[in-house]
Amino acid sequence: MTGKTNLPAGRQVAVSGIKASGVLHIGNYIGAIEQFVRLQSKYKMFVFIADLHAITVPQDPNELRENTLNVAALYIACGLDLKKTILFVQSHVPAHVELGWILNTLTPLGELERMTQFKDKSQDKGVLAGLLNYPTLMAADILLYRPDIVPVGEDQVQHVELTRTLARKFNSRFGSTFKEPKELLRKEGARIMAIDNPTKKMSKSAGSNNYIALTDEPDIIRKKIKTAVTDSGSEIKYDVNNKPGISNLLSIYSAFSGESIASLEKKYAGKNYGTFKSDLAELLVQKLSPIQEKYKSLLKNKKSLMKILDAGAKSANKVAEKTMAVVHQKIGLI
Ligand code: AQP
């Protein structure tokens, strides 16, 4: 065999996922979900809920189950179209773990120890081996579907780079098998910062004051934006070094309104932070309300959500198993 895998022909392929490690926030939406929705008309999309990545830090089993379904419902509520996108749960496709293991056997320990996300999170006590091996599982998540692109936020770029390195390594050792995918980042807003500390990334696990959840009620959104950290001075100007707080809010405004940052600066010239923040809060309430309504209605029928995920897993497994058949043959598994 020479790497013919019968994988999706025709349309280019895109793959991405989000961890079921808590409540999704507007950073996840801007950096990832909004891109998925835009790309699904052009690409064959595989989108998954990363439950196996979520457990790289301890999760309560009931919360994990709930979060997994919540993420599924949010994806659909945000606009994923199940006719265009294959939506599934990572653990429902066992090939992710199998290929992840195989890629571990090709990955020098030092490469994993150098990953920024590992370095940041391994400062915590009791860090688990799963956190170190997260990037090889992520490489497997991607390579199984032989995608052309991986739409992600900026924090995941290093992991996509490692994915390319591993694809190259596998190909050079065992013969051409995997494509080397490219990350796809938004031009603006690829890294949304925490609203209580604009020098840190907005993160699910960093506490609810650092993020605006996609499911936050209107009054919570208004309160969080009102108290979002801004900078000294009063000018509404994009300047990440000197005005990280207002720059972050401008990125959020721009992503949700579709207006460029330059045009927002013009619109708010001479106006104060209060006016800008109040407009931003109303914009978020207006954009998130329909998503929240749809989300609540989807969660009323969990059986139907499970059916959607079962169908997605069936389609994903078909593709993943074909890739694994080639991998088995190449590396000598009988
Ligand atoms: N702040 C962000 N700005 C832009 N994009 C972001 N993403 C995450 N945070 C931001 C993108 O969302 C996708 C899914 O991320 P994930 O949940 O799988 O992992 P993460 O990047 O580790 O996200 P969190 O919120 O920081 O999760 P925790 O706290 O659980 O580790 C990815 O494409 C990511 O780039």
UniProtKB/TrEMBL annotation:
Entry-linked PANTHER family: TRYPTOPHAN--TRNA LIGASE, MITOCHONDRIAL (PTHR43766)
| Protein known as | Tryptophan--tRNA ligase
What species does this protein belong to? Candidatus Giovannonibacteria bacterium RIFCSPHIGHO2_12_FULL_43_15
Name the chemical reaction catalysed here.
tRNA(Trp) + L-tryptophan + ATP = L-tryptophyl-tRNA(Trp) + AMP + diphosphate + H(+)
Enzyme class, first EC level, given as a word: ligase
Which GO biological process categories is it annotated with? tryptophanyl-tRNA aminoacylation
Q: Which Pfam families does this UniProt record tie to the protein?
A: tRNA-synt_1b
For molecular function, the Gene Ontology terms on record are: ATP binding; tryptophan-tRNA ligase activity
